[in-house]
Amino acid sequence: LPVITIFSIFNLVLVVDAVGAAAKWLPRRFPKSKQEKDETAALVRRTSATGMVTPAIQMLRAMETKRKFKAGVKTVIAVNRLSSHASSFSNDKKDD
After folding, report:
1. Which residues of the chain are under the pLDDT cut of 70?
2. pTM greater than the 0.85 cutoff
3. Left, alpha or beta for 51 (phi > 0: left; psi -120 to 50: alpha)?
4. Inter-axis angle of helices 55-95 and 2-25, to 10 degrees?
5. Which DSSP state fits 50?
6. Please, are residues 57 and 49 in contact by the beta-carbon 8 Å criterion?
7. Residue pLDDT, tens place only, 67-91
């Protein structure tokens, strides 16, 4: 159930971001002259999401960090269990 909630929140953030982008770009007319095309290209470069941290990107980064941390913890637990079983197994063999 929490995974469904996370994906629902993520989808809402994406929709809000898309609506904001549409509200910004839809009223603009299509560039016809070379100068208008250059101005539009410059505007796109200035306002593109690369380099900017949007709420969606922040959420993705937080989810990725949490996933990596959990994987690391599970790996440490598995290694400890495996080493304790291996040492007890080797001790049992020595006793025989």
Report:
1. 1, 3, 45-57, 89-96
2. no
3. left
4. 150
5. T
6. yes
7. 888 888 999 998 888 887 777 766 6
